[in-house]
Sequence to fold (184 residues):
Amino acid sequence: MQVLEWALLYPQIVQAIAPIATSGRHSAWCIGLSEAQRQAIYADPNWLGGDYTSEQPPNQGLAVARMMAMSAYRSWQTFTDRFGRQYDACADQFAIASYLQHHGQKLVQRFDANTYITLTQAMDSHDIAQGQDYKSVLQSIEQPALVVAIDSDILYPPIEQQELADLIPNAQLGLPSFDWDWSA
Fold:
């Protein structure tokens, strides 16, 4: 998102861009997913309207929000290939549940709920056109652009990157195939 903004704001400084798995404006799909994540945080009893203490932050809500986000970063096929219906008898849950809970807890250890709320709201308001004609704004980007799509990303599907590549005059689309490191 920032790369597109920089290309428009600083054309004399930015010489080339490579927007990766993004769009020129947040879609209704993205806004809806962000709202669901925020509601998970708001529903945490420690949220207290955002005026929580560092001793009792809304960690459960933040972890659930991250779990939702992690589910949107991969495709159905990717999750099926990696986890299938593996069941961890020791943990008494499916492997995908362990994976999502692990990533929820990792975020809680390094991130703040108010920051998460603010970040998702900023992303929701992202629209490079800012009231102007969207197509014309994209066509005004003069820098060479390598627009990268990730075929397994359901948050920013490749169709959005295709649109960027089609409308930015000096752009080409890259659609790499990734073999994800699921241990990360």
